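Help needed: design a sequence for this.
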């Protein structure tokens, strides 16, 4: 059985290059063609999410603000009559499935009598049943890939006509439009999951597949013996990543655009991961010195950045003695290797 690969690499600014190396190893392990490999028990999906995009030129793309998701397709699941494709979701900052963004649907049509071969056998080709707009994988490809952001988005009801100010000019007259969600954003923890889609009576992919949890003699169902009363094993939580992946932007030529994220920082807010407290300086050059002062001018922390790839630098909200700093207003001073400076302030609320 293939190991689960849903955990992501460490924070992008420090670990992105390591995660790219690990990802390339996963690519070799998963491959792209050849015989199908063992898949985890349905509806589990083995996948890996990592910062960056594999480049044939060898360029480091970990600062491209992109995340690559690669997963092993399940041929047995794709042969199910209710298989409608794969759905990829994303959640930012917290590991939670209640408000995930649907990024992409890779959809196929349901099996119909028109999908038979001349000998009467069912056509085994998924490609023949694809939605031409949403499925482009050939039958020979065993490992599938999606790059975020490269999203068709989700169907959202919008006003048909807008006035010059962007307000609705045709109340009651709306249309559905594909709207791509924003992001991914620098420094935020990103969690991804993949589910199986299902088809409706029109043979079109419309929603997540329902796979009732009837194990242990319907022990988790509301009504014993009634599958529709059971929890869905194909829910977003089934394949949700256990550890987040981070993206970052490239280094800058100067210090003019330096920002602190988040500002203000609020302790135990969605930005923080469990056990971590940090702010991130963004839009930094390759080499820079970041000094943090109290509003009274006392030096709190002196940070050095020497990273030619990432334009970000984390501060763990500790002083030089490795003690947590108090709530208050802090001033930062960024000095580039050429001697140029930028100053600003930010707020910490514990």
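Sure. Designed sequence:
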């Amino acid at each position: 059985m293939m190991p689960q690969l849903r955990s992501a690499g460490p924070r992008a600014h420090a670990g992105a290059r390591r995660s790219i190396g690990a990802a390339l190893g996963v690519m070799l392990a998963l491959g792209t063609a050849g015989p199908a490999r063992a898949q985890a028990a349905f509806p589990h999906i083995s996948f890996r999410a990592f910062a960056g995009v594999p480049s044939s030129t060898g360029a480091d793309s970990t600062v491209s603000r992109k995340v690559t998701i690669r997963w092993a397709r399940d041929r047995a699941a794709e042969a199910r009559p209710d298989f409608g494709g794969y759905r990829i979701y994303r959640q930012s900052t917290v590991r939670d499935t209640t408000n995930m963004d649907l990024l992409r649907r890779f959809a196929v049509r349901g099996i119909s009598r028109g999908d038979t071969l001349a000998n009467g056998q069912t056509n085994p080709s998924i490609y023949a049943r694809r939605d031409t707009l949403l499925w482009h994988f050939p039958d020979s490809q065993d490992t599938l890939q999606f790059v975020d952001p490269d999203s068709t988005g989700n169907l959202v009801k919008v006003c048909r006509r807008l006035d010059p100010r962007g307000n609705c000019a045709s109340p009651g007259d709306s249309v559905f439009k594909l709207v791509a969600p924003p992001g991914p954003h620098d420094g935020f923890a990103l969690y991804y999951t993949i589910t199986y889609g299902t088809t409706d009576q029109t043979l079109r992919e419309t929603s997540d597949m329902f796979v009732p949890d009837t194990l242990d003699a319907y022990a988790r169902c509301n009504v014993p013996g009634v599958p529709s009363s059971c929890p869905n094993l194909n829910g977003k939580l089934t394949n949700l990543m256990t550890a987040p992946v981070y993206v970052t932007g490239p280094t800058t030529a100067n210090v003019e655009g330096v920002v602190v994220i988040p500002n203000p920082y609020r302790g135990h807010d969605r930005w923080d991961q469990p056990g971590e407290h940090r702010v991130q300086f963004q839009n930094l050059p390759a080499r820079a010195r970041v000094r943090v002062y109290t509003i009274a001018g006392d030096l709190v922390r002196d940070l050095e950045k020497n990273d030619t790839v990432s334009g970000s630098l984390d501060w763990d909200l500790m002083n030089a003695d490795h003690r947590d700093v108090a709530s208050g207003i802090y001033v930062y001073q960024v000095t580039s290797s050429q001697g140029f400076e930028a100053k600003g302030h930010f707020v910490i609320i514990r």
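The first helix runs from residue 12 to 30.
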